[in-house]
Amino acid sequence: MIRTFLKVHGSGNTFYLYNTSEENEFDWVHLTKWLCNKTNEGGADGLLLVLPSKVADAKMRVINADGSEASMCGNGLRCVARYVCEKLGTESADIETMKATLHVRKENPIFDSIPTYAVEISPVSFELSSLPMTYKNQTELQHQIINEFSPTIPFTAVSVPNPHLIGILEQGSLDDQNHQQQLATFLNSENDYCKDGVNVSYVYPLKNDTIFVRTFERGVGFTNACGTAMTASALVSNLNGVVDAKVVTVYNPGGFVKCEVIQHEDNYQLTLIGNATYTSRYEIEINQTNYQFIARHDTTEQEQYEKCIEFVNKELDALIS
Fold it and tell me: What are the E-state strand segments in the chain?
């Protein structure tokens, strides 16, 4: 049987997107590992499944490159938001995810004419049990030095709902990944702190409303961008005075997004705004667990996005020079 898959990305975080009415149509773990293998059309970071929902306009499932399932994906949700809104002919929709039903909407282009969508990121919790994470007898970990991790970097643990450990750097090079990679690799193997692993992000302050975020994503490794990580980083930066704006520009290796942070006492309303780019449409033949690419049809949207990358690089050069 031949099925159609879209190749999409949000901030360079690349996925295959597949719409089906049958939740168990294929072995998603096996298929995702094959799709994400870098020897197959450059691979991807995961598979986005668009499914029927009884409580929303559609349901999204996210299968990571290693076959594990994520509870949410902000960059992926933007791509699903576009797919669902265009399919329904609407400007907004509600998407069911593993932990919550989230509102999404079409936005004005973030750069030139790039298709742009805003998505709700929720729920938010600083309880270590929500990640889950264990550190001594603490129930929360906010902007705190953990000597076992680093004697100079303060870390915050937060779930949105994916688990994140956010470190704020006051010094260091954007190009130096060694410490982050060592820590993230440790926390995503057998350890006493995060039994299910955790996404580890390092935040570099740039301006009062601008940060740079690099993320080592659980189940993937270093990614061009992680939507929930960028949103969590904007929240943590806002709470700790790193930025003082409600709308934070977040640069990342794959481009940039806008993150809106609104606080009502202990409640947080978070919105992630960024591109939803379609790069290709693939026809793939699937016979049980045997797969073959049959045809590929590229769009012109990536050309638009490359201009955005050029803009980001120039802005970063100006900010860090």
Answer: 2-10, 13-19, 46-51, 58-64, 69-70, 92-96, 101-107, 116-121, 144-146, 150-159, 163-168, 199-207, 210-217, 221-223, 247-252, 255-264, 267-275, 277-287, 290-298
